[in-house]
Amino acid sequence: MEVANNLIGKVVDLVFGLVKQEIDYVRNCTENINKLRNEAQKLNDMKGMVQQRIHLAKDKGDRLLDGVQNWIEKAEAEVSKAGKFLEGEANAKKTCFNLRLCIHEDGKTYESCVSLPAPTPSFVDLYERKNLDDINTHKFILDEIIEALSDESIQIVGIYGLGGVGKTTLAKEVVAEVKNLFADIVFITVSQTVDTKRIDKDVEAAAKRIINGDKVLIVLDDIWEELLLSDVGIPCGNDHKNCKILLTSRSKNLCEAMNVQRNICVNTLKEDEAWILFKRVVGERLDKDTRLKKIAKAVVQECGGLPLIIQVVGRALRNKPTDLWEATLDRLQNHAPLDIAPEIRKAFTQLKLSYDYLESEEAKSCFLLCCMFKQAGSVYLTDLVSYGVGLAIFSDLISLQDARNRVQIAVDTLKSSFLLLPSEIIQCVQMHDVVRDVALLIASKGKDKFFVAVGKGLTEWKPRKNTSESYTKISLLFNKIRELPDDELHFPLLDTLNLRGNEVSVIPDKFFGGMREVKVLDLSLNQISFLPQSLKLLTKLRMLDLSYNNGLHDISMLGELKDLEILMLGFTGIEIIPEEIGQLTSLRLLHLESCEDLSHITPGVLSRLTSLEELHILDCAGDLAQLGLVELSTLKSFKILYLFASNPGFFSQGTANLETLTDFYIQIGYISESIFDIHNSHIQRILSIAGNEIACMRPMKKLIQTSEHIVLDTIEDIESILPCLYQESFNDLKSIKLSNCPNVSHLVKTRDGEAMQNFGEGETKEKFFAQMEEIILVCLKGLELLWDCPHQYISFGSLQTIKIIDCPSLVSLFPVDVAQGLVNLSDIEIQDCDNLEVVISANDEHTTYGEIEQTEGTETDAETVFPWLTSVTLSRLSRLESFYSGHSAIKYPSLKFIKVKRCLSMMRWGHGVHDIPNIKFHDQGRDCSINDIIPNQASGEIEFGSLK
Asked: Which positions are tagged coiled coil (predicted)?
């Protein structure tokens, strides 16, 4: 290329400049004419030879050297001029002609080479753009990726999603769209086995261009493990911002590990989009054949919105007869992928790779367990925990909480690989139908062999002797089975039996005799009244779920199951926890929820359960005062208590060492909402008390002081939280809800002397509310202020939500110096507080303490920022005059929603400047400020912005 550039440079200089060397005309004109004729002929011959080489190069698809075509044109012009000159020999003898001999010299370069070998066409040259019309899921993602690549602040973009969801196709679509924006684009398929030498070679030329300053895009497709860009020769980082990287992977975590700055998820297609794509593959016959169209619709549903599977299945069935379509649908619906045509099975293989490359054996085990539960339904993490503990899939397990943590890690891993999907139900995950088929396929090929017939409407179960012996796990979840085989079944390898959600009332005595390896037995949601004698033979049983068998009363037989670690007895008819249960020295969890007839736990039973970590007693009849929580305090492993009872009789003897529990969910008395619906992972100690007196709470004082979430409802003899319930500050309290407590005047109420004595001059102690994240105050008729103590002892740095409803004596909420510390506040909601005049007040307003005086100019000059405040709702506040009564500037960079309803006295939001960039205020077609809008609400309602 350098030679070619030099040559064309010479041509330009010599053709368009002055000739540096001229032919010395000899005096003999005849000699000069002959010489000219010879040189012209040589130049013409050379031109012809070069022209032939050009034709050959074009036929081969090679690229011509720069300047060669220009030389042809110049040479042709010179030959033509020489020919015209020589036509009149007489004139030639009288004049002279200057043939540009440099043209001949330059032509010698092209005699041997006129082109460079054509590079192998890249996929960009060959790629056929896909039709994304009406496939909005991919169109929107395509635009999002291009936007990210166009952002100069973003260098590495990642796209991730389930195998077969269309990541590679989208990456190629992106390249086709942006190819003119980059000097070079390199597309490299990394795959499962990373060949660093190959990648290094593929990016070698592009790396040179990057170093030289050219803008280059490198696509690394199908990454399965973390790849250091420097190890494969890709210049990246702050010194090479001209290099853009696009990664595709099945794992979000992997993208994050490779420092992706913009991570984009590729979701499965919606139902209508999947049908559009399927029709494009199969063709017009779907519109012409009504019967086939109905079958095809069902086939598309089985493809789960995965473009790869949709296209593979569509291609396989495109020209097949309708009968074969029906057979394929039947096999798809019955999850028999081994019987499906090889073309279809290839799609399943794509998903299986995601499983094969999971590094965690615990994640693999959880993945396979998920396929035992309801098809297309949610899988509860609690099931994965109890089944996992029963099957001992967790090595070196420390506790049940450790098992929960490891399940969460496994689930996160599976979700990042798109083998599991998020669920709308809290503490659940979902498994896609297609992925579930893959799980069953994997199970059928491994050491485990599953038999899964979930939700099939089965009314009986008669296993075949020839096939049943190899099963390790059987799930007959949610069928209509009433009777079980009366014979002794032979399942020598069976470790898991799930009969949840059937109509079984009687289990034959011999039923469990031939399955003595069972470790997990789920008989919940049936109609069982008596336990069969053969149950005692399951000596390796570790998890037993008998929940929701209302007719079950006698459980004394369970004392024989010495290895039992998890026992679920919720919603059964048991009346007593018998002495035999004390033999279960391996028991970690005893679950007793809504056992309405349970009124007695035999003394000494709990203290004998030396491995017990958790006890769940929720909404059981009777006060169970005989329980004696002191027994639990002797158990070294006991860490978690779930307790719901009608009165605090449990605590008549004190709480012993219960304040050392890592988790407790204790509800005393009945209120409208259950604390057990609270699923906030970082709040682990919750206490709710309703309809009692402070005197009843005194035995629980230490428990109260270690709570993270407190709910107090309908307690008349309480005036404040501190000092009534707390000694000093709220050391651990993160959330508080007070309702229907008429005499509460403050959350904190101390006199000057008490405050100074508690905190002490020069002594560093934790401030009030320091850990508080949520405050909910409802129907507190006497509430005047949140606190009655010096402001310097107040800190709301962690507060995220404050909700105040029907507190008619409340006058103001926060003084501005406290409000300046609301750095995490997100939501404010205030309703039906008749005397509230201001939400944020100047420091000299509405305070009991006269020692805090505003320094002149201080408040005016100060600037307050609510960095995370998102939503403000003010409703039915008849005396409210403004949100802020001071004059300093306030910024609301995150505020997106404001609602003001029936605040009749409110004429302004506040004095000073209020910067709310995310909400545009308009009045009669013109832009305005919030202060212009507020007076217009009158007795009605104004609402700006949206939280969507």
From this structure: 26-53
